[in-house]
Amino acid sequence: MKKKSVMMMFCLILVLALTGCRSKKETNDQSNQKGTAIYYTNNDVTKLILKRKNIRLKGSQIQKVQTLLGELQKTPKSQNIRTVIPKRIVINSFEVNSNIVQVDFSMGYKRIAENKDLICRAGIVYTLTQLKGINYVSFSISGEPMLDTDGTALGALGRDSFVFDELPMK
User: Fold this and answer.
1) What is the pTM of this model?
2) Strands (E), 9-163
3) Is 41's pLDDT higher than 60?
């Protein structure tokens, strides 16, 4: 009987201890910080760099996505960073379906080097998924699903689709 109550006490303490723990992802919640996060890259296009801007995100989800995509395409004031979307790349269209934003690029997107391609997609995903209700972004090129290096469709990407060892962040 004594073993049972000691075991129950241990389980209760363990449960209480675990409920107080938060993952790094939860403690870095975007909503607790001021400004809207816009992700840029360094001049070598090897890292994502977060900059917060005072952007008024109002209206429908489509209007908010449009505002953020517009911000991603603007040339930053600092000469140490650049947009994650190269200037020669055109966003043909985008749609918001449930919790997924579908972004369609022009054919010029196929000319982006693989590491720049990864940084571009990650910057867009990280910027758009800060919106409440948006969890994923899917990409296409001139209406065709974007393919991975092995020829399979990428599908919808979320923040957890990128491995930090492969995607340096600053």
Assistant:
1) 0.77
2) 36-42, 48-53, 81-83, 91-97, 100-105, 136-141, 144-145
3) yes
Instruction: Please choose, from the candidates 120, 159, 116, 131, the residue with its C-alpha nearest in 3D space to the C-alpha of residue 66.
Output: 131
Name the one residue in this structure whose structure tokens are 């049972």: 4
CA dihedral 53, 25, 118, 139 (to 10 degrees): -80
Least confident range of 16-25, 99-108, 153-162: 16-25
Whether 126 contacts 39, CB under 8 Å? yes
Angle at 30 between CA 119 and CA 155, to 5 degrees: 45
Phi, psi (degrees; rounded to nearest 5) at 89: -95, 130
**How many Å is the Cα radius of gyration of the chain?**
20
